[in-house]
Prior knowledge:
about 30% helix, single chain, about 140 residues, alpha+beta, globular
Amino acid sequence: MNTTKEQRKEKAIELMKKLDIYKPYIKEFKKSGNICIFENFAGYCTWNDKKLFLKIKEIESKYNCTIFTVIHKYTELGEIFDFLLVNDYKNNWNHILTTKDNFNYIFVYEWNKTNTNLSGFCTITIVNSNGGIRRVE
């Protein structure tokens, strides 16, 4: 049941490839662990946002997981960050990402920065295009 950081990182890279994320972002994650943040298909790798960096580390530590990509979006419920992750339960890894009818269904930790009581684990729908990803409502 317990997995190593390296095992989770390898699975994360596999998932990034399945999502057809822009190859330089995958290389950056593989090389240095930098996470790509996507907003409406556009992505950027950054550790400049200290609050987001601390939130990522908090979630990884609390839930023994590896976050590999973040989707950021403003909704009527608040400012949302979806953390795509690989959890510690290797026997469930085949269910992290499911693809059907050109849609990807992926397990995430959703952080509602505006209304933190609405945060938690869930499955969201995402689509990919030209190396980027976007959440579908």
